[in-house]
Amino acid sequence: MPKGQRRSIEEKILQKQEVIGALEVRMEHERKELEDLVNEQKKKEVDVLYDFIKASELCVNEAIEILKQHVAQQYEVTA
To answer: Residues 6 or more apart from 59 whose CB is under 8 A from it?
Structure first.
């Protein structure tokens, strides 16, 4: 009992191209969602830093200088 008409190689190629195209669209969508999530996370982290700086009554430049000194000291300790 025959299973039905077999697809030609051209039809198989076309089907695979369609599948790949759909996967590429899905990948682009997933990349965009990932980028949005990473940006949201960065914003939250910046907000936390900003709130901490303001609560400590430092200006941003003062906080940067303190962080630079801290990093330099850490570098000296590990060097």
So the answer is: 53
Q: CA geometry: angle at 21 spanning 38 and 12, to 5°?
A: 150
The torsion defined by the Cα of 9, 15, 18 and 24, in degrees rounded to 10, comes to -90
> Per-residue pLDDT for 5 more than 80?
no
Question: Side chain identity at 16, as an amino acid letter?
Answer: K
Q: How confident is the model at residue 2 (pLDDT cuts 50, 70, 90)?
A: low
Is residue 4 pLDDT above 90, yes or no?
no
Contacts of 7 (CB under 8 A, 6+ apart): 15
